[in-house]
Amino acid sequence: MKINNKYLKRSLFVVVVFMLVAFSAPTSERYFEIAKNLDIFATLFKEVNTFYVDGVEPEKLIEKGISGMLESLDPYTSFIPEDDIEDYRTMTTGQYGGIGAIVGRRRSQNVVMLPYEGFPAHKSGLKAGDVILEIDGIDVTGKNTSEVSKLLKGQAGTDLKVKIERMKSEEPIDVAITREKITIDNVPYYGMIDDEIGYIKLSDFTTGAGREVQKAFEALKEQGLKKLIFDLRDNPGGLLTEAVNVSNIFVPKGSDIVSTKGKVKDWNKTYKALNNPVDTEIPVAVLTSRRSASASEIVAGVIQDYDRGILVGQKTFGKGLVQATRPLTYNAQLKITTAKYYIPSGRCIQALDYSNRDENGSVGAIPDSLKIAFKTQRGRTVYDGGGVDPDILVDTKQYAPITISLMGRNHIFDYATIFYYNQDEVKSARDFEVSDAQYDEFVAWLADKEYDYTTRVERDIEDLIASAKKEKYYEAIDDQIVALQNKVMHNKEADLQKFKEEVKQMMKEEIVGRYFYQKGIVEASFSDDAELEAAVKALKDEKKYNELLTDTNSEASTSEKDDEKE
After folding, report:
1. Active site residues
2. Residue 94: left if φ>0, alpha if ψ -120 to 50, beta else—which one?
């Protein structure tokens, strides 16, 4: 069987790389082990390519082999083939050529979920709820969102035509759009919560994050800012340099921000605050969640280690690993974990130990018994290994199964579209509320819609029945189980009333997004935000705020729920 020489060279590139590593091995034994296994790999590939019953694609086969090898290390070390380089650049820079809209797959249709305000999709008149039928004459009905995204993206300045289906329009509409260089804002929203408390939401750490936060902070100070809520919830992190820049806004020039330590000693480095801060005195409350990771944890950790502010929310994700990209041949790249980072107190917040796996290949969280205590600048006790603990712990909001079902089946999204085309305006994102009459209309509209769901209790009962049957006990407890099922069986109509306020809040945010886009969604969420409420409460209580920053006997975590009981 003949194969393309280009693919063969690319496929065997991994062998060449490892041979180079082998020649630099410190011992002859290590050299032999590497050379032996690479020889086995090369001959195995040759035999599979020659004799396997069906044709094989060398490129895909080797990529799977590379992926399998890297998966044994950690989730952050990965191979980036040439075809995926543009997506990787978009992720790290926040820039791409396109139309500036979120597109999702809904009931076998590609739907505009949210156009970004001020970008080509918005300026050309695309609206949330529009169904995309064609892009430049190509029918996209059967294409997935990734394929649609590639058709929408392109060089800035180029034109495209999108055919859409829109509610209340009898015929499809052709929309002409000129692509632009899209730069996704790291700070999608900032504003004043009240006369003295400002709010900044940071969603990413791509290029310019520090500059954007500084600009927002300075603008709020001009509006009378006296205290700040800095929202890092669900922020997945990004560029290490931007974590340094953001931290520098709050701490003095020359302060240690983060240190990196890895195998290559020459790469070990301590990053310091290089610029004058915007402010080192204003009280700050940083909002964190379980999905705040990496660069967000550096910033949160810096704020906590220097006692610059308080953390409110949940323990962060626990990613204390640093990645670097290394160029490979054929324009591919390797994203590889090169070091661990350490925040000013000296702690590393990495939660999982990827260097030690059990016999099944699984890794576990670092046990509490192995965690080490460190001290903040004022002497508060903090711990490594497992994320950054908040100073005020607020439980994660748990949505009712009916709310999850209505969102997952897009009924709230679809109703918001209907609402938009039947109501000309909504005066304010913050003040808008779904009235009881509007909610009743929504409930009536749901009458012929499918939104069934199974509650956790119902699933537990099903597991109990399966176990009872397996262990031959079911007949003995049959009557009791049936009685229990009847007692806990959910009623959709009853749940719509029981969880009315929760569903109304989701409706509010979706509807407001139609009129005020991303900024409106953020403002609409303020009225039902437990972490935000806890932060406002702490900032307004100067005594409590100062106690949290000076209590050297605490473990830097107090429960908002416990405060209420006291």
Report:
1. 294, 305, 319
2. left
